[in-house]
Every structure is written in C-alpha cells, then in structure tokens.
Amino acid sequence: RLVFELSDPMDVRWDIYTLGGHRIKQVRQQFPSGGPKILQWDGRDTEGDEIANGVYLYVLRGSWPDNGGHDAKQTGKLVIMR
C-alpha cells in the first residue's frame, strides 16, 4: 500500500515500473476530499501474477477535478520483500 496526504480532492494514478522501465501495474482512484489517503495494491502485475522480490519504481500523479492545467507528480522507489 502507498500512504500519502492530499491537500485537495484529486484523481490519483499510481504507476509501478520495473527498473528497466516496463510498467507492471496501474492503480487509479478518485479522492473526493483532502487529507491522509491509502492506495491499496495486492503486489500483482496486470496479468494477475505476483511480482518478484526486488526494487521497483513508481510514479504517483494527481490531477484536480477541474484540472485547470495543474497536476501533481511524485516519483520514488519501492521494495518488495516477502
């Protein structure tokens, strides 16, 4: 899961990539209010297969419902260890 905080209502997209740049999963959710939030992910790729232990990259993008040309973006690494 990914824990973060929003200042305003947003549509959020969480893309998860291998270190080689292949996107393995995309999680989308709308949040009608700001505050602390959690995006759930079951650790599976788009085919439903459990991904291997290792380091992955993610891009978290948020857009305001009225958009107005303003988007937020955060990148980072995540580690899967079972």
What does this structure look like?
By secondary structure, this protein is mostly beta strands. The chain is built from no helices and 6 strands. It has strands at residues 2-6, 10-17, 23-31, 35-39, 54-63, 71-80. Strands 3-2-5-6 form a 4-stranded antiparallel beta sheet, with no helix packed on it. The chain has a two-stranded antiparallel sheet with strand order 1-4. β5 and β6 (71-80) form a beta hairpin. The protein is elongated and about 35 Å long. It starts with a strand and ends with a strand. The mean pLDDT is 90.
Helix-residue proportion: under 10%
Radius of gyration from the CA trace?
13 Å
- Widest sheet: strand ordering: 3-2-5-6
Order of helices and strands: EEEEEE
Structural class label: mainly beta
Task: Tally the beta strands.
Answer: 6
Low-pLDDT stretches are: none
How far apart, in Å, are the first and last alpha carbons? 14 Å
| Backbone shape | elongated
Mean pLDDT: 90
Main beta sheet: 4 strands, antiparallel
Strand content: over 45%
Annotation field: number of helices:
0
Q: What is the compact description of this entry?
A:
The protein is mainly β and 82 residues long. It is built from no helices and 6 strands.
